[in-house]
Amino acid sequence: MEDPCGVCIDPEDDGFGQSCAGCDGIPNSGTMFDSCGICGGANQTCSGCDGNPNSGLSFDACGVCGGDNSTCNGCDGVPFSGLIFDECGDCLHPSDPDFNQACADCSGTPNGGKEVDLCGNCLLEADPDFNTLCADCRNVPNGGFAIDPCGACKDPTNSSRPGGFGQGCSGCDGVSNSGSQIDVCGMCRLPSDDSPLPCLDCFGVAKGNATLDQCGVCGGDGTSCLDCAGEVFGPLRIDECGDCLDPESDEFNEACRDCSGEINGGRVFDRCNVCDGNGDTCVLPTEAIVLGVVGGLILCLGCCAFLLTLFRRRENDEDDNTPLGARVRSGKGRKVFLQKKRGSASASAQTQIKGSARGGASQGTLRQRGPGGDAAAAAAEADLDAALFDAAFGEGGSDENAPLLR
User: Fold this and answer.
1) At what angle do helices 373-393 and 331-344 cross, to 10 degrees?
2) pLDDT along the chain (406 residues), means of 10
3) Looking at CB atoms within 10 Å, which of 156, 298, 330, 359 has the fewest?
4) Mutual orientation of helices 347-358 and 373-393 as an angle, nearest 10°?
């Protein structure tokens, strides 16, 4: 009988209803094994974290599918440790008190560069106040000297000696109570004198050695205001061509323009004076003629060689496929054949053949000369040739009679 699969089979046969059964054994259920080998499965039991069956991928400690734990590793190599390298290059947690401290300056700035001066102030060494905020009247940091009541810069510990601290109120000019005092520059002057102190350098440091250079820069080397020609505050500049010129000059950035006007472009005129051309636009007529003639000769030679090859191939093909009689009847083949046959055929055979061709005429008659004899001889020769040819191949030119004169 016919099973559920439409197959005519014995119901007792183990294959009854099995040819269309799914993996669950039920005919026509359509149930199949998934990629994981599960009947009716959805490829989930063997799928990796990427959703592909049997990919083998799983989530790393950082939660990355197929990852290597590197995305959440700390600088110590431990996932989620939170440790990072600080600005000092140390592997620490940001909450660590030592974070960014190993290289911090006195202001707490990592790699800041500030330091505590002799006055206890956290400053950059280039700061004008560096080591000056605690300078005494001699401009010596923590020097200890002070201006006494008489206005003299003296050592407060030397007050018992004549001329010591607070002793005598004569001015530095030698005038009693004149109020003249020695300033930070060591000059005797009144405190009310607001004229510039001659010993301050451009940084404001008493008796410092910093000066303004020719460009007006304090402590400079005098080159910051030089133009390319070495002139102080000069107008010249280096253009894109490497030339030292005035930017307002018509020659500025012109020396290196190519033929298209692009600076440092690299395009040039060809021999035809065409910018970035290939030099073919101005080929002289004589050159064109020579090129044409040479090209024509080459083409002609090629055609001749092709035709000669084709002709020889055709002759060979005809020689291979044309019957012997037909080949001998044509042109040169007939002539060569008759020359050989005349040499090999006996006189009696030729006479017999001629007689047959002329109705029994004698050989002497065919060979006669005299008035009108040349025409008759030529006709006799033609008849002889035809008779020799027909005797060898027959009138139809077949090869059946070929052995007659061979």
Assistant:
1) 90
2) 80 77 79 80 78 80 81 85 90 91 90 92 93 92 86 81 72 71 86 85 88 91 91 92 92 91 90 89 69 81 83 65 52 56 52 48 40 59 68 52 40
3) 359
4) 100
